[in-house]
């Protein structure tokens, strides 16, 4: 793997090679948006893609038929619309069939309930897109007047999600069904849990028991997930979850992986009760020969590491020992979504345990486990891993990882650069700073004030050999350029006293007297006061380059600023420089 190459998704277009994590996120989202836009065009305008030019023709690569083919009112037409997920059309046709006295089979009605329970009595994505297209194509209406309120409604629906309305289409159809079976009750319960009506789901489950029906494993999984919304106290939540498990045993329903994951997810919200019971749940999984998934381990770690004041537990090491032995495939919707490897690495950082971090990194690199992390999480993971390396490892190891990881695996954040600078300072290897500064320019962090001050502080603190001082002065020149206005839209950075002073010191030590004096003039312009160290460094530079005029200018500047050191500078100038009568 080329450590200087960007992620493979960006290599098709060199112009869009990201410079930093923000660019990487923007470009990756843009690429996915382009794919979604192409899918939208194909789905909504299939008539433009009905000609087959491919030879041989591959049907699975051609657009799907998403428009109803059966016309008229019939149960077959209703089944087709349910299959195409056309919620509104399916409900309308069902009502028309009922009003016409045409019987609809129990199986078809249950399929309609499945559709309504999944979408929460809302519209499917394809229906929303078609409605938006029709609104935009409606003549005589200003498009801008329509877009604003519709966009606002979509934002609201996405933030809160579709909710379960009382007496919605699903409940209305359920009530008028001439007969109901266990599937009818189960799909209603799952829909109510999915869309935030936990108490109504529990009432529906009571009705199911009263009708002598049995729930399936998916319904029990949904009810166990809803427990935290049904009870307030921790012990009551555990008792209710245990009651559902007892009912499963009585109804001879075999639990699966999702059952135990739902139980552990509930125990995450049961405080100390969850910590005391979760290991018992794992033993039960082992007894039933059910292998944990990534979500199982994430729930377990969250139960033990949720509180900030909890003492360190060895559970994370045991979990990593188990995870390290396996290759994972997605089995639970929470796999990958909930097992945040970067969060687990955060716990490693809190515990200051570099061995655990290496173990977690080895696990992440095994097989296809890395696929559980998207680009954002992958960058977050490597960022935390690198910060821990800077804190705990030798500088040679840190620099080796830095060269191998950036930018092929991650883009360092400003905090990563600060951590690296502190590691270089602790190891007394400040000569590496100029190469780090080149990376900072590439990453686009030259306007990060905290970062600039840290660079200048480290470079100006001690005297170094001439070659290093010249490299430091070049970095100071770049920082000086970053403080100057670059265009109308970009405001110049504000000079601070320490920043000005450090730049003067770096120019002075490199023998760049004129550049150093230019920066000294900025003190008066920016209403800042130079320190004695800054003025002494400049005076030593003026002496070394034999520039008495600059030394006199310094004395005048100190006097104009009313500094107490002006008299000392005057005496030193008279002693160390050969001044003409006019200069005296």
UniProtKB/TrEMBL annotation:
Annotated spans, Disordered: 124-168
A single Gene Ontology CC term: mitochondrion
Compartments (UniProt record):
Mitochondrion
The record, for InterPro entries, names: PPR_rpt, PTCD3, Rib_mS39_PPR, TPR-like_helical_dom_sf
**What is any one GO biological process for this UniProt entry?**
regulation of translation
Gene Ontology MF terms: ribosomal small subunit binding; rRNA binding
Sorted keywords for this record are: Mitochondrion, Repeat, Ribonucleoprotein, Ribosomal protein, RNA-binding, rRNA-binding, Transit peptide, Translation regulation
Task: Report the superkingdom from the record.
Answer: Eukaryota
Predominant location: mitochondrion
What family is this? Answer: Belongs to the mitochondrion-specific ribosomal protein mS39 family.
Q: What is this protein called?
A: Small ribosomal subunit protein mS39
- Lineage of origin: Eukaryota, Metazoa, Chordata, Craniata, Vertebrata
- Gene from which this protein is expressed: Ptcd3
